[in-house]
Structures are given as structure tokens and as C-alpha cells.
């Protein structure tokens, strides 16, 4: 079934564009899902910018209908509300419900994360 506001799109790895985003220590590669779905869904890869991870992001939450993180490479450590510290590495995946307070505590220099959200654009609130 074709959805009227969705369209086919392909983003080639050899043409990847990395841009600054929400956090200055990260770079983001938009995978085109926002464009393909009229902002209903978003998907991007997050990696460390030059200089690497310098400090925790601070406790914050996002207003999302869905937010999933898949670790493509490296390792990371997060503080998650009601869970405490959670370490993840290549191949691990986690889901963050709407409004879950969390904090990125550490990311290795080779860390890359795939983040999938709905909607593509969402609000972030510091706690």
C-alpha cells in the first residue's frame, strides 16, 4: 500500500554529508527518511566530531512517539531514569519511551549510533 506523503529515497554512503546538530561533540548524517516521509519518521547516524566526547550531555528527555538507538560501532555508556548506568557496544539496541530522562555519559571515539524516531523533528528538554 502506497502512502501519498511517502516517497522512495536512497542515500549513498559514498555521498554522506555529516553536519553539526543538537550536540556540538557529535556529527549527524541524515538518512533521508524525514524527507521521504514528510517528517513522520526520522533516521540518522550519530558519530563523534573531531575532538571526541568531552563531557556528559546532561540529563534530558525528548518528546517522541518512538525513539530507538542501534550501536553500529564502538561503545557508549548512558544513565537511564529508573535503570541507572547502561553500557552498550556494537550490535546492541535500546528503545527510549517518550519523556524518558537520560544522559550520555561516555562514547568511544569510534562510536556510531543509528537513531530512528517519530516524528523526525522532536523537542528536547533539559532536566
CATH superfamily: Jelly Rolls
CATH topology, which one?
Jelly Rolls
Number of domains: 1
Mean pLDDT: 92
The gyration radius over C-alpha positions equals 15 Å
CATH architecture: Sandwich
Per DSSP, the total helix count is: 1
- Sheet with the most strands, sense and barrel status: 6 strands, antiparallel
DSSP strand tally: 11
Task: Set down the secondary structure blueprint.
Elements: E1 19-20, E2 26-30, H1 33-36, E3 42-48, E4 60-63, E5 66-73, E6 75-80, E7 84-89, E8 93-95, E9 102-107, E10 112-118, E11 123-126
Antiparallel strand pairs: 1-2, 2-3, 3-10, 4-11, 5-8, 5-10, 6-7, 6-9
In short:
Helices cover 3% and strands 46% of the residues.
Report on the structure:
By secondary structure, this protein is mostly beta strands. It has one domain: Sandwich (Jelly Rolls). 3% of the residues lie in helices and 46% in strands. The chain contains 1 helix and 11 strands. Strand 6 and strand 7 (84-89) form a beta hairpin.
Q: What descriptive keywords fit this protein?
A:
6-stranded antiparallel beta sheet; 3-stranded antiparallel beta sheet; globular; Jelly Rolls; mainly beta; 127 residues; 46% strand
